[in-house]
# Entry
Amino acid sequence: MYVCALVGASGTGKSHRSLWVAKEHNIEFVIDDGLLIKGNSVLAGKSAKAEKTRVAAIKTAVLTEDAHAFELRSALKENNARSVLILGTSDAMVQKIAARLGLGEIDETIYIQDISSPYEIQQALNTRRMEGKHVIPVPTMELKKDFSGVMLDPLNILRRRGAGSFETMGEKSVIRPTYSYLGKFTISDYTIYQLAEHAAKKNEAVARITRFRADKAEDGIRVEMDIVLFYGYRIPEVFSGLRKEIAEEIEKYTSLNSVSVVLTAKNITKRKAEGEAPEPAGAVKEAK
# Structure
C-alpha cells in the first residue's frame, strides 16, 4: 500500500486541504482524527472532535484503543485499499498511526507549508484560536450520528476550472468541539515528573531520582533524569528497559509523544540492612 502523510501543526488547515491532496496524488482513503474516509463517506472509526476533552481527542486521533484501530484495519482490508493519506500534527504522530494500522513505513510526507501559503496558514490559525472552529472533510449528513445536538455547518469545496467556471470537489463540515471552548489546557512539568517517578520506582534497581528536566516542543516531550542506582545491576540493561517504561507511562496518561528519555547514573548505593535507619527521601533538585 502507498502510504502518504500530510503533516502540520494543529489548526493550520490540514483537514481543509486533505481532499485536494488526495485528489492530486490519486489517493483513495484519508485517515483524519480517528475517521477513515473515502470520497464523501465515513467508512469506519470515530471522530476525535466528538470527544469532550483534549486528551481524549488526542488518544482517539492516534487510535489508542485496540478496538478502534482494528475497525480501521478491517475496513481498509475489506475495501482492498491501495493508497491512504494520514493526517497528523507531527512525523511521530503519523508514524504512530501507521504502526497502529500495520501499514509499515510512510512512503511520502507532505508538509502543510509546502501546499499552503504563510497567509493561508495564518488565516487558519486565527480561525482556530479566535473561534475554535475545526474542519472535518466529509458532508454534514455523514456526521449526524456522531455529533447529535452539535452545530454543524456545511462548507462546499470548489476548484476553479476556468474563467467563471468551478468544479465541486466535495463538501466539508465545520464544527466547534466541546474542548475548543473549555479554556486553555496545560500539563505541568511536575505532572510529567510524577509519571516518570512512578515508572522509575517500579524498577527494583532504582534508589531515587536526584534531578529531573522536561522540555516540551511541537513534536513532543524530552525528558532528562539523573538517577541513583542500587549496587549489583548492569546499568545499560536497567536503562534500556527504564527508558521504555518511562516513555510508555508518559504517553499513556498525557498522550504526549516521548521524543527522548535521557538517563544518567549519578551514583550507586547499597541497600540498607534490615532495621537500619533509611536515608532521607531524595528530593528533586531541579524541575524545570
